[in-house]
Specification:
two-stranded antiparallel sheet, 106 residues, alpha+beta, 22% strand
């Protein structure tokens, strides 16, 4: 069974999922490259890939069509879900602008 975590934002319940190993390695590499390049807003395709691979919403799988309809006009929600997925999978907080901090630091 895969490790999951519930994340509630507004009226929506997101089930965050651990990435499969190889997909997680690819995403981690992209995060590292973005960090090395000075951060900034993550690439659109990267955000879509992370959210579609890392969460369901209200028990529904997020694909590109669901992503487009669900997050229309809800960019703060999209950024928050993205950050939660990254934190859940890698233990780091990413503020959506490419600025990361180690979530384990107290």
């Amino acid at each position: 069974m895969f490790e999951t975590k519930e994340y509630v934002r507004g009226d929506d319940t997101y089930t965050l999922k651990k990435f499969p190993t190889i997909e997680g390695m690819k995403i981690r590499k992209e995060l590292y490259q973005m960090h090395q390049e000075g951060g900034g807003i993550p690439d659109v395709e990267f955000q879509i890939k992370v959210i579609c691979a890392g969460a369901t919403v209200n028990s529904i799988q997020i694909d590109r069509k669901k992503f487009e309809s669900h997050f229309r006009g809800k960019f703060d929600d999209m950024d928050a879900v993205f950050t939660e997925i990254i934190d859940f999978n890698f233990g780091i907080k990413d503020d959506g602008m490419g600025n990361e901090s180690d979530a384990t630091v107290e």
